[in-house]
Amino acid sequence: MTTSTSAITPVVATLRAEVAGPVLLPEDPGFATATVGFQTYGPHRPDVAVLATTTADVRAAVRVAADHDLPVAVLNSGHGVPPRYTGGLLVATRDLAGVRVDPGRRVAWIEAGAPWSAVIEAAGAHGLAPLSGSTPHVGAVGYTLGGGLGLLARRFGYAADHVREIELVTADGTTRSVTARTHPDLFWASRGGGGNFGVVTGMEVDLFPVPTLYGGGLFYDAPLVGEALRAWRDWTSAAPEEITTSVALVPFPDVDGVPDPLRGRHVLHVRIAATLDVATGDEVIAPLRAVGPRLLDAVGELPYTDSATICSDPTEPMGYQTTNLFLDGLPDQALSGVLDRVGPGAPSPQVLEIRHLGGALRRPPAEANCVSHRDAEYLLGLTRRTPPDATPEQAAALRAPHAEVRAALRPWSTGASYLNFLDGDGADTERVRSAYTPENYRRLADTKARWDPRNLFRHNRNVPPTAPTSPN
C-alpha cells in the first residue's frame, strides 16, 4: 500500500538529513533507474528509494523505516525479483561495490552491490576463483544469500556453503558481524534464506585455486536435440563430480548478433565447466560429442575470468517470468513431455535449462545452513520473455506453458523449488515454502520471529515470522 504524501514527507526529510547518498521520490529524476534492475517485467513502486553509499546509509534507512513502520526492500542488480509490491522504502546497494581479496587466506570480502564480474577479476589476479554463476553481472551477495548454484557446484557445493562472515543490518538498525560463533541462528538462516533477516552490506567468502577451466558449449541442431538430450541424461549417471553441466533448449532469434551457425535455430546447448585438464576433459565428454555433428563445439581450456562465455547469458535488461522444480529422475517419458511442450516445433518458445546436481551439492557444509533438497538429481528451469508493460492477462497467457511442463513432470518432481529462481508472481508464500524442508522452514520462521517480528523485510521472497503463541 502506498503511503500518503503527508505521511511520507517527514520520512523523506529525516532520510535526507541522515543519509549521505541520494534519497529519491517517484517524481525525482533517477528514481525509475534506481528502482528497476535487469528484470523489467512487473515494476515495483516504492514510496521512496535510498541509494546507499555506505553501511551507515543502510543503518539510517532501516532505522527510519522501522520508526515509521515502512517495509524495506533491497535491490542490487535486479536479476531475481520478488512479487510486485507498492509502497515502502527501497534500499539500492549498487554503489556499495567494493571487493577485497586476501590471497593468503583465499577469501574475498564482497560489498553488497558488487557483481560477480568484479569478484572474478579481483580473484583472478591471484589465480583464484569464486563460486560464481553463469552470469557475471549478477550481484554476488544476493546470489549467495539464496544458495548460489554455480559453474563449479558439483565440485565445491553451493556458494552459501562457503560464506565465512556476513555484515548484516538487522531490523533495529544495528550492524552485526554474523558468524557461526557470534550469531549462529542468523548465520544458519542467512546462508540460503535470502534477504529475510536484514540488509547484508558485505560478506566474506572462500576462493578456490582454479585459474583455468575445461569448459564451453556444445550446440546441437533440432534434428539431434532429442538424441543429444537423452545422451546427456545417460552420461550424467556416471559423470565425475569435477564436472558440472547443464543443458538448455534455446530458440535463437534470426537477428544480428546471434552467431551465424545458431541464428534462427532451436538448439540444444550443453554447458560444461570442469576442473579437469584438456585431455581428461575430452575423454570424459566423448560420449556427448559422439551423438553427432555440432553446430558449434567451443569446449576447451579457458581462464576462469572468461567463464561467462560458457553460457553466454543475455546482458541487456529484459522482462521475463520463470518457474523451476527439482527432479529425482529424467526417464524418457519425462524428456518427451518436455520436448513436446517447449522443444523444437512446439507452439510456445521458451528457454529451458536442466542442471545436473549431485556431487558436493549433496554434502552439507562444515557449518550447517538452511539450503535444502540436496538429494535432488536435477533442477529444471523455464524462462519466458514477457514485455515490461504486459497486462496481468497477457502475462498469465505467456506463463501458461509453465504449468503444463510442471504437470507433465509431476511424477518425477520432488515438489520442491530453488529459491533464487523464483521470480515475481511465482515467488508466493507457498512456493517459497517449497524451497525448504518442513523442518528448515519452521526454523527459518522462528529465526525471523526473533530478529524481525514485524516482518519489516517482507518485500522479498518472504518467510513470514512464526505467529506468537497465545498464553494458556
Please describe what this structure looks like.
By secondary structure, the protein is an alpha+beta fold. It folds into three domains: 5-92, Uridine Diphospho-n-acetylenolpyruvylglucosamine Reductase, domain 2, CATH 3.30.43.10; 99-206, 2-Layer Sandwich (Uridine Diphospho-n-acetylenolpyruvylglucosamine Reductase, domain 3), CATH 3.30.465.10; 212-433, Vanillyl-alcohol Oxidase, Chain A, domain 3. It is built from 14 helices and 17 strands. It has helices at residues 5-18, 31-35, 55-67, 116-124, 140-145, 153-156, 184-190, 222-236, 278-284, 286-289, 332-342, 392-408, 429-433, 438-451, and strands at 23-24, 48-51, 72-75, 89-92, 99-102, 107-111, 163-169, 175-178, 199-206, 212-220, 243-251, 266-274, 296-297, 300-303, 320-327, 351-356, 378-385. Strands 10, 11, 12, 13, 14, 15, 16 and 17 form an eight-stranded antiparallel sheet that branches. Helix 1 (5-18) runs antiparallel to helix 3 (55-67). It is globular. The two termini are 35 Å apart. The mean pLDDT is 94. It comes from Actinoalloteichus caeruleus DSM 43889. InterPro entries: BBE, FAD-bd_PCMH, FAD-bd_PCMH-like_sf, FAD-bd_PCMH_sub1, FAD-bd_PCMH_sub2, FAD-linked_Oxidoreductase, Oxid_FAD_bind_N. Its cofactor is FAD. Keywords: FAD, Flavoprotein, Oxidoreductase. Residues 41-210 form the FAD-binding PCMH-type domain.
